[in-house]
Amino acid sequence: MRHDSPHIFGYPDRFSARPGETLTFHVSCENIPAYDASLVRLRHGYTGASGPGFLETELPSSFEGTLAGAWHECRPGSYVEIPDPQGLLRGIDGFRLQATVFATLPLDDRSSGLGAYHVTQNSISRDNAAQSVMGTWDKTTETGYALILDGGLPTFVWSADGQVERLALDTPLLPNQWYELEVTYAPAGDGVALICRPRDSLMNRLSAQASALHVENATATTTDSLDAGSAPFRIGASSASFEDTWSAADVFNGKIGEVRVERTGTRGDAATTIAAWHFGKSAREDGLLLRDVLDESPNALHGTCLNAPTRAVAGASFSGRVDDFRLAPDEYDAIHFHDDDITDAGWPIAFSFVVPDDLPSGVYAARLRSDGIVQHIPFFVLPHRGATRPVAVLFSTATYLAYGNDRIAFEADGAEVIVGHTPIIDPEDLTLQDHPEFGRSCYELHNDGSGVVFGSVRRPILTMQPKHRAWFQGEGVWGLPADLCIAHWLETEGIEFDALTDQDLDREGAGLLEGYDVVITGAHPEYVTRGEIEALDQFTAGGGRLMYLGGNGFFATVSFDPEQRHLMELRRSDGGTRPHQSAYGDQRHATSGERAGLWRNKGLPPQRLLGVGFVAQGFDRGTHYVRLQDSFDPRVRFAFEGIGDHELLGDFGIMGGGAAGAEIDCFQPVLGSSSQALVLATSAPMSDAYLLAAEEVFEMLPGLGGTEQVSVRSDIVLTALESGGAVFSVGSIAYTAALSHAGYDNNIARLTGNVLRRLLLPEPLFDIAYGQR
Amino acid sequence: MTARTGDDRLAEIQAIFDGHYTERLRTALTPDVAASIAARPLGPYDDRCARVVRAFANAPIAGKLVILSLGPDGPWGIGEITIGAPGNIVLFPETFSTHEDAARQIFLRRRDAFLSPLSDPVTISKA
Fold first, then answer.
1. A56 and A90 fall within a common domain
2. In chain B, whose CA is at the least distance from the CA of A432?
3. Residues of chain B contacting A621 with CB distance shorter than 8 Å
4. Are A97 and A148 in the same domain?
5. What residues contact residue A738 under an 8 Å CB cut-off, 6+ apart?
């Protein structure tokens, strides 16, 4: 959506690159004819006076200079496009279109009170009067043909002799019910027939008896000159011409499956198949359902998914007995489309950047400026292969994507009560509200009420601006701005680090960590892949040392698309803390085959790796830690050098005023915390805004707040491993936001620095006793 | 007669609940409780105050008041969530030197709106 005020927006093609690799940057300007681009190293984000302020260092680069600004459309909506170079779907005299559909928003009547936060209004306006199931309809010229829902009514629309013709049924589809739609078109006056049959399915919201649906059909006469138009054949959307491209129009909300196109020929001839797409089958050996869509007909009219519609979803034939799409592909012959899906804005390349050989690993941004308007496009530079520094920081890019472009404070009744204070809105959030086309976070619901399950680098993510403050954390830092607190603390400690991202660790595995003595996590590594957990486990088992400087870490499953590095999948399962929940049958990741959900429910509780695990969240205020008996153990004297026996640890900080807060973890032997771990400190009591996490509550109990539950706490834990490895965990998102207090002259910075310097020494921390409980 | 929908039936039940809920909230929002919340608008709260704060915090998002950060260390403004307005918010003219003051102002506005004889129970309790 274009506005009168000046803005610059942009995104990179991916988050990270090594020296010698090329990143591309994609920029759109609103009311700005030219902008200055430069490379900056991001050093610190938070702008308030209680920290060091916003810090960046400008560096020479190949792309610095003044560039012409141009506006580019960002058009949400997911669909499948069918390349058809021979025009098989265009030059057909008589044809039959068949599909099953499960419309989730056939009319403009989305339910309210949805999801964990009780979403009751939509900040993304829409026009879903027409929703295309399939066809070649060009909305601009009103040519072509398409099977659509028009005001919820199954309708066939086509152009003939320069006129728009349509044939519609009388009854709108019920939402969340499967139907079979079929159009038979015969030229030369033989007519067009449209039929809609209700399809009994386990996934239907209403039983067949309760819905009382019946078959409906209609017919009309035809002329002999259907104009198939010039737009591409699409499933889930029609087309509108824009500049030199075809934008998505009339995007379908819901599932479509079992799509076939047949040539019916002249009367009496047998029908021949032109295309028979199977959305549950994959051409890949691993069976994953990624971008490519398979046509099983001899014509091989394979398709491509645009803007990541959701695959691996239960189709009309879903039996409910198998929940893995790879084992029952026929039951997963469906794709869920959304009119607000946006995973690739598709803007042209504004400039490219070949990462120079001599550019040190770190956090960088392309800074774009014009007349007081500034936009950063953050990215990460990895080190040369095999040339590592002793310390690596694993930036929580999966979590950045999960929270990217969060709009909850504008849509959900429960936004305020869940965070325990009135939301504090950042000006960047208002800009985001004016740009609904930039899409939603994975905490939100699509227009049709289903949960958002994809995050993508390839769209402007305004919540990743380095100065951004999250509405839910009392103006605190979150995501990248929070992790810049770690980057700047290391800078003040004089410790250089290599920057790694979740995507890199997932793709390269434990090999990426070879050579590092210490790996430091971000403040909120909530979302990780199985490969990342295994890599870090292997790292510590090989003697590596891990500093988990966050909270709510290693909590839930994400996957990265193996063919599209910019795309992350995050579905929600049916247990534990979650903002929404995928339907049964839709809870497995198409891009990895992983079951969605919490790692603790999948045999990999974070307590096993970290010594602590998520237990509560609250956002009203933070608090301090108090030292426990283990902190006086002579074996860990190094950690508390310069810290008094009775000092309160972290009774300060730019996130809630205390180092313990936001989302917190505790020591839990029952879930895998080592009994030999030393519990160095625990938080002071939390307020009742901190509630015990849902996954800890097997049956509802009164009194789940911090003043009544001993588990609602953050623990600082140090675990020595037999390998010589070690794990230091702080169990609090707010912890790193306390590092900079008083110019880094404070006991949190001292404790963390003491531990880091000790972990960099090769000697084992201390022996652990064999078999001790 | 127009056919009733499931939403119509739920709305009827909601209205009954809202009546009870509002009545209880009127009882809970004593001058003492209001003064206590106004004195400490960021909490923490005792159980009596917490009930009132939760009720206001759970109000429908449409028209809800929020705080807007206007600078690195303030000032802070307040505004009303309004879909269709620029930024989907209508800002009020006054600003505050602390976000605690902004939060206090929001509570006082909510209290006044709730105690107004014209208040609609549905605007207070959760939809």
1. no
2. B87
3. 42-44
4. yes
5. A650, A652, A653, A654, A655, A658, A659, A746, A748, A749
